[in-house]
Amino acid sequence: MRGLAQPAQMLTPELESLIARLPKAELHLHIEGSLEPELLFALAGRNGVKIPFRTVEEVRVAYRFSNLQDFLDIYYQGMAVLLTEQDFFDLTWAYLTRAKSDQVRHVEIFFDPQGHTQRGVAFDTVLSGIERALKTAEAQLGITYRLIMCFLRHLSEEEAFATLDEAMPHLARIHGVGLDSSELGHPPAKFARVFARARELGLHVVAHAGEEGPSEYVEEALDLLNVERIDHGNRALDDAALVRRIAREGLTLTVCPLSNLRLCVIGDMAQSPVARMLEQGLKATINSDDPAYFGGYVNDNYRAVAAALGLSAAQIVQLAENSFTGSFLPPEDVARHLAAVREAAR
Ligand code: HPA
Ligand code: ZN
Predict the structure, then answer these.
(1) Is the CB of 289 under 6 A from ligand 1?
(2) What is the CA radius of gyration of the chain?
(3) Pairing with 48, which of 73, 88, 275, 333 sits 20 to 30 Å away (CA)?
(4) C-beta of 180 in contact with ligand 1 (< 6 A)
(5) Alpha-carbon dihedral angle through residues 104, 218, 211, 325, given to the nearest 10 degrees
Protein backbone atom coordinates (compact mmCIF):
# COMPACT_ATOMS: atom_id res chain seq x y z
CA MET A 1 0.00 0.00 0.00
CA ARG A 2 2.58 2.49 1.13
CA GLY A 3 4.74 1.98 -1.97
CA LEU A 4 1.79 2.83 -4.20
CA ALA A 5 0.93 6.04 -2.41
CA GLN A 6 0.79 9.22 -4.42
CA PRO A 7 3.58 11.65 -3.57
CA ALA A 8 2.26 14.44 -1.35
CA GLN A 9 1.09 17.43 -3.32
CA MET A 10 2.89 20.72 -2.87
CA LEU A 11 1.07 23.34 -0.85
CA THR A 12 0.58 26.64 -2.61
CA PRO A 13 2.43 29.60 -1.06
CA GLU A 14 -1.00 31.05 -0.20
CA LEU A 15 -1.99 28.00 1.86
CA GLU A 16 1.48 27.81 3.47
CA SER A 17 1.08 31.41 4.56
CA LEU A 18 -2.49 30.87 5.76
CA ILE A 19 -1.46 27.93 7.97
CA ALA A 20 1.52 29.83 9.32
CA ARG A 21 -0.48 32.89 10.35
CA LEU A 22 -3.82 31.46 11.52
CA PRO A 23 -4.32 31.70 15.29
CA LYS A 24 -5.07 28.23 16.66
CA ALA A 25 -5.59 26.18 19.78
CA GLU A 26 -3.95 22.82 20.39
CA LEU A 27 -6.29 20.40 22.17
CA HIS A 28 -4.40 17.10 21.99
CA LEU A 29 -0.84 17.31 23.24
CA HIS A 30 0.85 14.98 25.70
CA ILE A 31 3.47 17.13 27.37
CA GLU A 32 5.73 14.11 27.91
CA GLY A 33 5.51 13.53 24.15
CA SER A 34 7.16 16.88 23.50
CA LEU A 35 10.47 15.68 24.96
CA GLU A 36 12.91 16.30 22.09
CA PRO A 37 16.02 14.08 21.89
CA GLU A 38 18.29 17.05 22.68
CA LEU A 39 16.43 17.74 25.95
CA LEU A 40 16.34 13.98 26.69
CA PHE A 41 20.16 13.94 26.57
CA ALA A 42 20.49 17.19 28.54
CA LEU A 43 18.21 15.95 31.34
CA ALA A 44 19.83 12.49 31.37
CA GLY A 45 23.18 14.24 31.91
CA ARG A 46 21.85 16.67 34.50
CA ASN A 47 20.17 13.90 36.52
CA GLY A 48 22.71 11.13 35.97
CA VAL A 49 20.09 8.89 34.36
CA LYS A 50 21.34 6.20 31.96
CA ILE A 51 19.53 6.05 28.62
CA PRO A 52 20.03 3.37 25.95
CA PHE A 53 21.10 5.86 23.24
CA ARG A 54 24.42 7.55 22.55
CA THR A 55 23.45 9.99 19.81
CA VAL A 56 20.42 11.93 18.62
CA GLU A 57 20.66 9.85 15.44
CA GLU A 58 20.29 6.62 17.44
CA VAL A 59 17.21 8.08 19.10
CA ARG A 60 15.64 8.99 15.77
CA VAL A 61 16.19 5.43 14.51
CA ALA A 62 14.44 4.08 17.62
CA TYR A 63 11.46 6.31 16.79
CA ARG A 64 10.26 4.02 14.01
CA PHE A 65 7.04 2.51 15.26
CA SER A 66 4.69 -0.01 13.78
CA ASN A 67 1.84 0.49 16.25
CA LEU A 68 0.78 2.38 19.37
CA GLN A 69 2.42 -0.03 21.83
CA ASP A 70 5.81 0.24 20.07
CA PHE A 71 5.66 3.97 20.65
CA LEU A 72 4.39 3.75 24.22
CA ASP A 73 7.32 1.52 25.24
CA ILE A 74 9.78 4.23 24.11
CA TYR A 75 7.60 7.06 25.47
CA TYR A 76 7.57 5.61 29.00
CA GLN A 77 11.30 4.93 28.78
CA GLY A 78 11.92 8.59 27.85
CA MET A 79 10.04 9.79 30.94
CA ALA A 80 12.80 8.33 33.14
CA VAL A 81 14.90 11.50 32.72
CA LEU A 82 12.12 13.70 34.19
CA LEU A 83 12.77 13.93 37.93
CA THR A 84 12.68 17.48 39.27
CA GLU A 85 10.24 20.39 39.16
CA GLN A 86 12.76 22.18 36.93
CA ASP A 87 12.75 19.23 34.49
CA PHE A 88 8.97 19.48 34.10
CA PHE A 89 9.26 23.25 33.73
CA ASP A 90 11.96 22.95 31.04
CA LEU A 91 9.94 20.32 29.14
CA THR A 92 6.75 22.39 29.16
CA TRP A 93 8.47 25.71 28.44
CA ALA A 94 10.23 24.22 25.40
CA TYR A 95 6.86 23.08 24.02
CA LEU A 96 5.18 26.43 24.67
CA THR A 97 7.87 28.54 23.00
CA ARG A 98 7.68 26.20 19.98
CA ALA A 99 3.87 26.44 19.96
CA LYS A 100 4.10 30.22 20.03
CA SER A 101 5.93 30.21 16.69
CA ASP A 102 3.02 28.22 15.20
CA GLN A 103 0.55 30.94 16.33
CA VAL A 104 -0.92 28.72 19.04
CA ARG A 105 -2.96 30.97 21.36
CA HIS A 106 -4.46 28.37 23.68
CA VAL A 107 -3.36 24.87 24.76
CA GLU A 108 -5.17 22.06 26.54
CA ILE A 109 -2.32 19.86 27.69
CA PHE A 110 -2.37 16.24 28.83
CA PHE A 111 -0.05 14.91 31.46
CA ASP A 112 0.37 11.34 32.70
CA PRO A 113 0.89 11.49 36.49
CA GLN A 114 1.02 7.70 36.81
CA GLY A 115 4.04 7.63 34.47
CA HIS A 116 5.87 9.63 37.13
CA THR A 117 4.43 8.67 40.51
CA GLN A 118 5.11 5.00 39.66
CA ARG A 119 8.80 5.97 39.38
CA GLY A 120 8.78 7.75 42.73
CA VAL A 121 8.37 11.32 41.46
CA ALA A 122 5.86 13.22 43.60
CA PHE A 123 2.56 14.32 42.04
CA ASP A 124 3.18 17.88 43.20
CA THR A 125 6.64 17.99 41.58
CA VAL A 126 5.12 17.09 38.20
CA LEU A 127 2.18 19.43 38.50
CA SER A 128 4.20 22.37 39.83
CA GLY A 129 6.80 22.27 37.07
CA ILE A 130 4.22 22.01 34.28
CA GLU A 131 2.01 24.68 35.84
CA ARG A 132 4.88 27.14 36.40
CA ALA A 133 5.72 26.96 32.68
CA LEU A 134 2.04 27.36 31.72
CA LYS A 135 1.64 30.42 33.96
CA THR A 136 4.88 31.92 32.66
CA ALA A 137 3.67 31.38 29.08
CA GLU A 138 0.34 33.01 29.89
CA ALA A 139 2.13 36.08 31.20
CA GLN A 140 4.99 36.26 28.69
CA LEU A 141 3.69 34.60 25.51
CA GLY A 142 -0.04 35.30 25.79
CA ILE A 143 -0.89 31.58 25.56
CA THR A 144 -3.80 30.51 27.78
CA TYR A 145 -4.19 26.96 28.99
CA ARG A 146 -6.18 24.14 30.52
CA LEU A 147 -4.51 21.12 32.12
CA ILE A 148 -5.91 17.61 31.67
CA MET A 149 -4.76 14.72 33.82
CA CYS A 150 -4.86 11.38 31.99
CA PHE A 151 -5.35 7.94 33.46
CA LEU A 152 -3.21 5.21 31.92
CA ARG A 153 -5.81 2.73 30.66
CA HIS A 154 -3.46 -0.29 30.80
CA LEU A 155 -3.44 0.16 34.60
CA SER A 156 -6.37 -0.78 36.83
CA GLU A 157 -9.51 1.10 37.82
CA GLU A 158 -8.20 1.00 41.38
CA GLU A 159 -4.98 2.73 40.35
CA ALA A 160 -6.98 5.37 38.47
CA PHE A 161 -9.06 6.02 41.62
CA ALA A 162 -5.84 6.29 43.65
CA THR A 163 -4.53 8.86 41.17
CA LEU A 164 -7.75 10.86 41.41
CA ASP A 165 -7.37 10.77 45.21
CA GLU A 166 -3.82 12.00 44.90
CA ALA A 167 -5.03 14.87 42.71
CA MET A 168 -7.72 15.94 45.21
CA PRO A 169 -5.63 18.56 47.04
CA HIS A 170 -4.71 20.06 43.65
CA LEU A 171 -8.08 20.06 41.90
CA ALA A 172 -8.19 23.83 41.56
CA ARG A 173 -5.14 23.53 39.32
CA ILE A 174 -6.48 20.70 37.10
CA HIS A 175 -9.30 21.27 34.65
CA GLY A 176 -10.13 17.86 33.33
CA VAL A 177 -9.37 14.17 33.08
CA GLY A 178 -8.52 12.08 30.02
CA LEU A 179 -7.77 8.48 29.16
CA ASP A 180 -4.68 7.41 27.23
CA SER A 181 -2.10 4.62 26.70
CA SER A 182 -2.78 1.14 25.21
CA GLU A 183 -6.30 1.21 23.82
CA LEU A 184 -6.97 -2.34 22.60
CA GLY A 185 -8.27 -4.53 25.41
CA HIS A 186 -8.82 -1.52 27.69
CA PRO A 187 -12.24 -0.17 26.70
CA PRO A 188 -13.74 2.99 28.20
CA ALA A 189 -16.15 0.81 30.26
CA LYS A 190 -13.22 -0.08 32.54
CA PHE A 191 -13.15 3.54 33.76
CA ALA A 192 -16.86 4.41 33.85
CA ARG A 193 -16.92 4.79 37.66
CA VAL A 194 -13.72 6.87 37.81
CA PHE A 195 -15.08 9.20 35.15
CA ALA A 196 -18.42 9.49 36.96
CA ARG A 197 -16.50 10.59 40.06
CA ALA A 198 -14.42 13.06 38.05
CA ARG A 199 -17.59 14.58 36.60
CA GLU A 200 -19.09 14.90 40.11
CA LEU A 201 -15.96 16.80 41.06
CA GLY A 202 -16.69 19.28 38.27
CA LEU A 203 -13.85 18.19 36.01
CA HIS A 204 -14.07 18.20 32.22
CA VAL A 205 -13.87 14.73 30.68
CA VAL A 206 -12.26 13.59 27.44
CA ALA A 207 -10.90 10.23 26.29
CA HIS A 208 -8.78 8.70 23.56
CA ALA A 209 -11.10 6.47 21.56
CA GLY A 210 -11.04 4.95 18.10
CA GLU A 211 -7.31 5.40 17.53
CA GLU A 212 -6.61 1.64 17.34
CA GLY A 213 -9.80 0.55 19.08
CA PRO A 214 -13.08 -0.03 17.20
CA SER A 215 -16.02 2.36 16.79
CA GLU A 216 -17.67 0.61 19.77
CA TYR A 217 -15.02 2.18 22.02
CA VAL A 218 -16.02 5.63 20.73
CA GLU A 219 -19.65 4.82 21.49
CA GLU A 220 -18.69 3.65 24.99
CA ALA A 221 -16.73 6.84 25.59
CA LEU A 222 -19.92 8.76 24.81
CA ASP A 223 -22.38 6.51 26.64
CA LEU A 224 -20.36 5.41 29.67
CA LEU A 225 -17.83 8.20 30.21
CA ASN A 226 -19.97 11.09 28.93
CA VAL A 227 -16.97 12.64 27.23
CA GLU A 228 -17.17 16.23 26.03
CA ARG A 229 -14.59 15.64 23.29
CA ILE A 230 -13.14 12.58 21.55
CA ASP A 231 -9.38 12.25 21.20
CA HIS A 232 -8.54 10.80 17.76
CA GLY A 233 -11.91 9.20 16.92
CA ASN A 234 -10.72 7.86 13.55
CA ARG A 235 -12.64 4.61 13.79
CA ALA A 236 -15.94 6.42 14.45
CA LEU A 237 -16.12 6.74 10.67
CA ASP A 238 -16.71 2.96 10.45
CA ASP A 239 -20.24 3.47 11.85
CA ALA A 240 -22.54 5.79 9.91
CA ALA A 241 -25.10 6.06 12.74
CA LEU A 242 -22.34 7.01 15.17
CA VAL A 243 -21.08 9.68 12.76
CA ARG A 244 -24.57 11.15 12.58
CA ARG A 245 -24.81 11.13 16.36
CA ILE A 246 -21.42 12.86 16.85
CA ALA A 247 -22.43 15.48 14.28
CA ARG A 248 -25.83 16.00 15.95
CA GLU A 249 -24.29 16.34 19.41
CA GLY A 250 -21.65 18.72 18.05
CA LEU A 251 -18.71 16.91 19.61
CA THR A 252 -15.18 17.89 18.67
CA LEU A 253 -12.63 15.29 17.58
CA THR A 254 -8.93 15.92 18.15
CA VAL A 255 -7.27 14.33 15.13
CA CYS A 256 -3.48 13.89 15.02
CA PRO A 257 -2.39 13.31 11.41
CA LEU A 258 1.37 12.75 11.82
CA SER A 259 0.72 10.56 14.87
CA ASN A 260 -1.73 8.48 12.80
CA LEU A 261 0.90 8.06 10.11
CA ARG A 262 3.79 7.23 12.45
CA LEU A 263 1.72 4.73 14.45
CA CYS A 264 0.40 3.10 11.25
CA VAL A 265 -3.21 3.98 12.10
CA ILE A 266 -3.24 5.12 8.45
CA GLY A 267 -1.04 3.74 5.65
CA ASP A 268 -0.35 7.15 4.13
CA MET A 269 -1.43 10.72 4.73
CA ALA A 270 -3.99 10.56 1.92
CA GLN A 271 -5.96 8.21 4.20
CA SER A 272 -6.24 10.81 6.98
CA PRO A 273 -9.89 11.04 8.07
CA VAL A 274 -9.79 14.85 8.43
CA ALA A 275 -11.50 15.76 5.14
CA ARG A 276 -14.11 12.97 5.47
CA MET A 277 -14.90 14.17 8.98
CA LEU A 278 -15.39 17.77 7.84
CA GLU A 279 -17.50 16.65 4.89
CA GLN A 280 -19.76 14.66 7.24
CA GLY A 281 -20.28 17.64 9.52
CA LEU A 282 -17.90 16.56 12.29
CA LYS A 283 -15.88 19.16 14.18
CA ALA A 284 -12.39 17.86 13.44
CA THR A 285 -9.32 19.64 14.76
CA ILE A 286 -5.61 19.25 13.98
CA ASN A 287 -3.15 18.42 16.74
CA SER A 288 0.38 17.09 17.22
CA ASP A 289 -0.17 14.47 20.00
CA ASP A 290 3.51 13.70 20.74
CA PRO A 291 5.41 16.06 18.45
CA ALA A 292 8.94 15.01 19.49
CA TYR A 293 8.18 11.42 18.54
CA PHE A 294 6.00 11.87 15.45
CA GLY A 295 8.02 14.34 13.43
CA GLY A 296 6.15 17.60 13.73
CA TYR A 297 4.37 20.31 15.69
CA VAL A 298 0.87 21.57 15.01
CA ASN A 299 1.61 23.57 11.84
CA ASP A 300 3.54 20.60 10.42
CA ASN A 301 0.37 18.58 10.95
CA TYR A 302 -1.79 21.19 9.18
CA ARG A 303 0.66 21.30 6.27
CA ALA A 304 0.94 17.52 5.92
CA VAL A 305 -2.79 16.95 5.91
CA ALA A 306 -3.61 19.96 3.74
CA ALA A 307 -1.07 18.83 1.11
CA ALA A 308 -2.08 15.17 1.10
CA LEU A 309 -5.83 15.79 1.05
CA GLY A 310 -5.79 18.95 -1.05
CA LEU A 311 -7.70 20.88 1.62
CA SER A 312 -9.17 24.25 0.61
CA ALA A 313 -8.44 27.53 2.38
CA ALA A 314 -11.99 27.40 3.77
CA GLN A 315 -11.39 23.93 5.24
CA ILE A 316 -8.11 25.02 6.83
CA VAL A 317 -9.86 28.03 8.40
CA GLN A 318 -12.64 25.72 9.59
CA LEU A 319 -10.08 23.50 11.35
CA ALA A 320 -8.61 26.51 13.16
CA GLU A 321 -12.10 27.70 14.14
CA ASN A 322 -12.96 24.21 15.41
CA SER A 323 -9.88 24.28 17.64
CA PHE A 324 -11.39 27.20 19.56
CA THR A 325 -15.03 26.13 19.54
CA GLY A 326 -13.90 22.70 20.78
CA SER A 327 -11.85 24.16 23.62
CA PHE A 328 -12.93 24.57 27.24
CA LEU A 329 -12.59 28.36 27.02
CA PRO A 330 -15.61 30.48 28.02
CA PRO A 331 -17.81 31.66 25.10
CA GLU A 332 -16.52 35.24 25.17
CA ASP A 333 -12.93 34.06 24.75
CA VAL A 334 -13.94 31.68 21.97
CA ALA A 335 -15.70 34.57 20.20
CA ARG A 336 -12.58 36.75 20.48
CA HIS A 337 -10.38 34.01 19.04
CA LEU A 338 -12.83 33.30 16.21
CA ALA A 339 -12.75 36.98 15.27
CA ALA A 340 -8.95 36.80 15.21
CA VAL A 341 -9.04 33.70 13.00
CA ARG A 342 -11.35 35.44 10.52
CA GLU A 343 -9.17 38.56 10.54
CA ALA A 344 -6.03 36.48 9.88
CA ALA A 345 -7.79 34.55 7.10
CA ARG A 346 -8.59 37.67 5.07
N1 HPA B 1 -2.45 7.29 22.21
C2 HPA B 1 -2.61 6.76 23.40
N3 HPA B 1 -1.85 7.10 24.43
C4 HPA B 1 -0.92 8.02 24.28
C5 HPA B 1 -0.71 8.61 23.05
C6 HPA B 1 -1.53 8.23 21.95
O7 HPA B 1 -1.42 8.70 20.80
N8 HPA B 1 0.30 9.49 23.23
C9 HPA B 1 0.67 9.44 24.52
N10 HPA B 1 -0.06 8.53 25.16
ZN1 ZN C 1 -2.85 11.23 22.36
Answers:
(1) yes
(2) 19
(3) 73
(4) yes
(5) -10
- 6 in any annotated domain: no
Across the range 278-303, mean pLDDT stands at 98
Pocket test for ligand 1, best of 75, 155, 260 (most atoms within 8 A of CB): 75
Q: How many angstroms does the Cα of residue 163 sit away from the middle of ligand 2?
A: 19
Q: Which residues pair with 180 in a beta bridge?
A: 152
Q: Please give the Cα distance from 205 to 132 (Å, whole number).
A: 23
Q: How far apart are CA 181 and CA 312, in angstroms?
A: 33
Average pLDDT over residues 51-63: 92
Domain count of the fold of the chain:
1
Angstrom distances, CA of residue 193 to CA of 154, 157, 220, 305: 16, 8, 13, 37
Flag whether 34 is in a domain. Answer: yes
For residue 133, tell me if it sits in a domain: yes
pLDDT digits (tens, 9 = 90+) for 163-185: 999 999 999 999 999 999 999 99
- Residue 30 CB–ligand 1 contact under 6 Å: yes
Strands (E), 20-119: 24-30, 104-111
Which are the catalytic amino acids?
Answer: 211
Q: If you measure from the C-alpha of residue 30 to the centroid of ligand 1, how many angstroms do you get, rounded to a whole number?
A: 7
Which residues constitute the domain of residue 172? 13-344
How confident is the model at residue 10, as a pLDDT?
87
pLDDT (0 to 100) of residue 8: 59
* Residue 1 resides in a domain: no
In this predicted structure, which of 61-65, 238-242, 244-248 has the lowest mean pLDDT? 61-65
Ligand 2 centroid–CA 346 distance in Å is 32
Q: Which ligand is nearest to the CA of 290?
A: 1
Measured between alpha carbons, how far is residue 36 from residues 42, 43, 94, 152, 176 in Å? 10, 11, 9, 22, 26
User: Mapping DSSP to helix (H, G, I), strand (E, B) and coil, where does residue 235 land?
Assistant: helix
Starting at the edge strand found earlier in the chain, the sheet holding 176-180 runs 24-30, 104-111, 144-152, 176-180, 204-209, 229-232, 252-255, 283-286
Predicted local distance difference test score (pLDDT) of residue 88:
99
